Amino acid sequence: MKRSLAVSGKYVTLVVATFVVLVPLVVVLFASFKTTGEYGATGPLQPPSNWLNFENFVDAFTSGRMALGFWNTGFILLFSIIGTILIGTMTAYALDRFDFRGKRLVFFLFLAATLVPGVTTQVATFQIVKGLGLVNTPWSAIILYMGTDIISIYIFVQFMQSIPKSLDEAALVDGASRFTIYRKIILPLLAPAIATVVIIKGIGIYNEFYVPFLYMPSRDLSVISTALFNFKGPYGAHWETIAAGTMIVIIPTVIVFLALQRWIYNGVTAGATK
Amino acid sequence: MTTTKSNPLRGAPGTAFARLRGVPDPSAIPDRDPSRRRLRLRNRSRLTPWLYSGAALLLLITFTYIPVANMIGYSFTNWDGLSRDREFVGLDNYIKVFTDPRYWQVFLVSLYYFVASFVQIAIALYFATILSFNVRFKNFFKGVLFFPYLLNGVAVGFVFLYLFQPGGTLDTVLGILGVQDPPHWLGDPNIANYSLASTSVWRFTGLTFVLFLGAIQSIPGELYEAAEIDGANRWQQFRFIIAPGIKRIISLSFILAISGSLSVFEIPFVMTNGANGTSTFVIKTIQTAFNFQRVGLASAMAVVLLAIVLIVTWIQRRIVPDEDVNLS
To answer: Which of A29, A48, A209, B247 is in the most buried spot, having the most CB atoms within 10 Å?
Structure first.
């Protein structure tokens, strides 16, 4: 008796939690399909009368310039991820496979940097990015995403420690250069770590708001976050359109999550605890 | 361990054979007349690791260390961020941050988020525990709990702006439950911060949950079996196996909670723009620096924030020493 009470209690809490998570999202989905008149006349919990009313989505997508947002996000994503992988794997290679004077100092510099939350230094970082002439170009975001990424270096170093060093030695004996070893042995074997970094980095960049908001105020450079944020002004009262815009931003995340669930869990645990 | 020095093949040509034959290694003796070629090769092998880590170091120094140094410098000036001249004003900016209520009040706002993160840790711990045992639809529940963490912060802001509207979702649900006169969730300064902090709990519980879940799963299963044979109930299993087993990650969560609650930005910025007493440290810093052109003052605020985070981390390291910082 007591046992079954505990079991049902467990499921009750799980179901309540599910509602708490899903209801706020589902009502926005409802709103995104409603016409203006319908939105005014019905309560938020009421489903839309026509599930195929995509007018709000079209409106949000075109007048919110969301295609541009996706394009800019994709551009920044591509270059920052390539940069992060190259820089991260090369640094990890140097730190794990070489012994050199100053290695401890380099480790210390990377470790200490994790203690400095990015938001605290933006006031001063902004002046540097401005000095480099990068404000209002996508390169400001790209260089910042590459430069502040210490987590991926950790992930690569951790993973590289599990690749046997005898592989490098064998290749060296066969006459391979250091770069060949990096290119032909290390990089391919790091594939799972690279996948992890691509996922957590990709999600992070897709969701980032602070950096594009601060460094790329031009409307032509708006990424998905800032494009959505811009709905706040002109659409203040048009919740159907805002709801549709919100859904346009959320849907890719849902798809990626459903497709890559297990990878994402692993990636996030690897990224967050290091 | 492979090192450039101990590997004979990387040195100047011939040294490996010399060593094999028992001839003293010429590179070990101070070189009177080194050939150019040998010098170049040796330098290159010493440079190699720097070539590989150079880009990362350059970015790290340019975008982390120089800004920190500059920021400390700016914080003693009255610089506006634009003009060439700036005056040294000593500790004026710091005095202002600590005495002017408009500035130090943002610390109080952090307290809401700090307390909320305890709620977040408790909820995450509860669900991580029950979902690491046998539960039907386990993966579905796991997915649902984790999913909000992946969402775009601006989208979350809009979703909850919609939820908290007068006559919106929350009011409707409460109406069904019989609550007649709901407060203005975001408009009432006494409540707005609670609403925002609970939005933050909604958004970030999934991360804490997944971290705990991972830690619990790394506890060997035999421990539970042994405990069950000994007649331990679930609570005892939690108390004596799970809680000690994930101590480290729990303490890490508290540190993340403190630095997280000091650096809250997106949710209040999108939802209230800092109105009704919901301005946080970061919102205030950005407004001070970029809207009011007081870079000196904003830098002082940022230095204070950084100092708090560093002190907290230092205290945590003292209380719960990290067993395995196994990087080098």
So the answer is: A209
